[in-house]
Design brief:
Elements: H1 2-21, H2 24-45, H3 58-68, H4 73-87, E1 96-101, H5 108-117, E2 129-133, H6 134-137, H7 144-161, E3 166-170, H8 177-187, E4 202-207, H9 211-223, H10 233-246, H11 252-256, E5 265-268, H12 274-287, H13 294-301, E6 306-307, E7 314-315, H14 319-325
Parallel strand pairs: 1-4, 1-5, 2-3, 3-4
Antiparallel strand pairs: 6-7
Helix pairs in contact: 1-2, 3-4, 7-8, 9-10, 12-13
This protein binds 2-acetamido-2-deoxy-beta-D-glucopyranose (NAG) (2 copies).
One 2-acetamido-2-deoxy-beta-D-glucopyranose is lined by residues 130, 154, 157-158, 161.
């Protein structure tokens, strides 16, 4: 940003100096020009809903998923396809709705960050990215009616301000079903709702629901001697949908929003293996500007609990934990 900004600033100052030297008529013109420049400078610093601040970088997303998300071949593939397809479509028929499922620490929040980083220049700090957490934003079940209208109001207001808004709902499994129902209309195939089009917005739902089934499936797959990367979406989806239909109180029923086919992509996050935990540690050292030390990575990774007990393959914790654990080793 540095050089361009300085050039702009110099230009702005010069324009002002010139104004002083001019007679009235040209002064008016110069003032107009200065006002225009002022606006340009304002937009330069102040995030606005234009391609300078909001522009999708498919190459960047692919590179980030490849280099920073470990052990999630399904999620990686689905996310890249979904987001790229959606962002390259100038006239989507509905907003993009992603439902991310898996145990805590498998990378659901992290993936949302990678998506945001490759759409908004400000990443998660963008004014157009909104994160809602059940416990923080909607803590009291008795107030659900208030939350409903507040949430609808927010979504409407924010999408009116910027069509390319992104909404992330964390801990969907803890969210009141009534609240989930209140956002359903925004996810559907409507040209416009009350004069507002939601078709360019992105909704991401994060949920631990289904995590157990995904873990069991991955474990069974490993036990049968197959390669993890051969695991396909249907291998996970079938046991999940069976569980959903057998138990409508599982939380998954509501979280999936499948009853109305509003979710475009179901994204499973698999439990990490020891080798992925090591990769996380190495990547984190690199991110901290240190030269990655394999011995230290193995040492930190070995502190985790792994299952099955005898083989110590799958980690009970994720990348985020290892990142904070590194503080005690470096
Ligand atoms: C897109 O991402 C790639 C890889 O991270 C980067 O090299 C490139 O500069 C980015 N393009 C834009 C326009 O930001
Ligand atoms: C946008 O959403 C935020 C919550 O993330 C809310 O505080 C704000 O009031 C909303 N803006 C509008 C214009 O509704």
């Amino acid at each position: 940003m540095g050089t361009a900004f300085k050039t702009l600033l110099v230009y702005f100052c010069v324009a002002n100096l010139v104004v002083n030297a001019f007679e009235p008529v040209s002064t008016t013109i110069a003032i107009g020009a200065t006002a225009f420049l002022g606006r340009t400078i304002y937009n330069y610093f102040h995030e606005s809903c234009d391609p300078k601040w909001v522009q999708f970088n498919a190459t960047g997303l692919r590179a980030d998923l490849e280099s920073q998300l470990f052990g999630q071949h399904l999620a990686s593939r689905i996310i890249l396809k979904a987001v790229t397809g959606f962002m390259n479509n100038n006239n989507p028929k509905k907003p993009l709705v992603l439902s991310l499922h898996g145990w805590t620490g498998t990378g659901k929040n992290f993936v949302s960050q990678l998506i945001a980083n490759n759409i908004y220049r400000e990443g998660m700090d963008s004014r157009f990215v909104h994160v809602f957490t059940s416990e923080l934003h909607f803590p009291h079940a008795v107030q659900v009616e208030t939350y409903k209208s507040q949430l609808q109001h927010w979504i409407r207001g924010n999408v009116t301000a910027c069509a390319h808004s992104m909404f992330v709902f964390d801990e969907m499994d803890k969210m009141h079903p009534g609240l989930i129902d209140s956002i359903k209309p925004f996810l559907d195939y409507y040209d416009k709702l009350d004069g507002v089009s939601y078709r360019k917005a992105i909704f991401i739902f994060l949920s631990n629901a289904g995590g157990e089934i995904i873990t069991h499936t991955t474990l069974d797959f490993w036990k049968s001697g197959k390669d993890r990367e051969e695991l396909e979406l249907k291998d996970v989806e079938i046991p999940l949908s069976l569980s959903v239909f057998n138990n409508k109180n599982s939380g998954l029923w509501h979280t999936c929003l499948i009853d109305k086919n509003l979710v475009d992509f179901f994204v499973p996050f698999l439990p990490l293996e020891y080798r992925h935990v090591v990769q996380c540690a190495m990547a984190e050292m690199k991110a901290r500007g240190l030269s990655p030390d394999p011995d230290m990575a193995y040492k930190v990774a070995s502190e985790f609990i792994y299952f099955p007990k005898a083989d110590r393959v799958f980690s009970s914790k994720g990348c985020k934990t290892i990142k904070s654990m590194l503080d005690y080793y470096i």
